[in-house]
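Sequence and structure are kept together here, with a separate record for every protein. An example record follows, reproduced without changes.
>
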Amino acid sequence: MATSNISDTFRKAEETDIERIWQIIGQAKAQMQRLGSLQWDESYPAIEHIRQDIQDGNGYVICREDRVVAYGVISFDGEPVYKEIEGKWSNDLPYVIVHRLAIADEMKRQGMAKQFMLQAEEVSRKKGVYNFRVDTKYDNTYMLRLIDTLGFRYCGEVYYRNNSARKAFEKTIRPHSHPIGISGYTIREATLMDAVPIFEAIDKDREDLRIWLPFVDSLKSAVDEERFLQSVLAVPYEQRDPVYILEQGETICGLAGFHFSDAPNHRTEIGYWLLPAYRGKGIITHAVRYLCQWAVCKRNINRIQIRCAVENHPSNAIPKRLGFTLEGTERDGELLVSGEYVDTNVYSILKKEVESWNRKSN
């Protein structure tokens, strides 16, 4: 993956890189000694650590003109000492961590460490992990400045070997936003940080939304939304039913996402809601189209289903507009907050039909 205009490449480290990586580690240790930092010592990190990093698939390098100039560990295995933090993490969700970050002397003060950290965020996004944690010694001023620049938040102290105290930080990695085909509107996966704005958006139009969305009455605070998002994000990405935010700029317009997925049978269901101010613009139609293509391409889904209350005409218009097939009607398929059971229409579209969208557009 190209990372700059000067032929920088970010990739996994290989066995053949060990000699060069060890040179860079030695340079980093020498610099720490000159600065009086106790971050690393003669025994840590050792060359055996580097070999193990590479064997585990956690070692990464940045190369400039095919020469390794930066090395670090990007791990999702968790850090045992983080469980005993003197302070508090914001949540218990999976996280990415960067260890043993070292930059070649000739590349110092050229933004290489920041570039590595941003690449770690990209690796994490691809795994659907949006927590980023890191720690450093109190005397590592360069790393402390970098952490601050990248928007990390101080959480407390953690303790390594010899009772060595380090400052611990975390941040939320924001998922990338994707255009849906309407100027100014995008879609992205929701994170735990979205709990408050999602709740506030729902609460503002609660009376309108509760008519067709029974869950609205049970959503009494942002904590309730946070619990829901945490339950979604705790599931490994490959098995997760993602929830997506529809936005105009950074303003929430609505939500869409998957539920009731059945991986063995390659089937899933899409649900959605939109705030009143944004209706009639085609936002949900474009968002559902995006999600259908994502499900087919990324998850190899063969059947996608949408269920709509029979009398909810705007909701029924979405699958009709996209060419879904009405398969039938479930009698008393949903219980509304009014206490009334309503029939629900069941629509479906198949993988081959979604794939035909692209052929038609070409």
Remarks:
- The CA atoms of residues 158 and 224 lie 30 Å apart.
- The mean pLDDT is 94.
- The first strand starts at residue 8 and ends at 12.
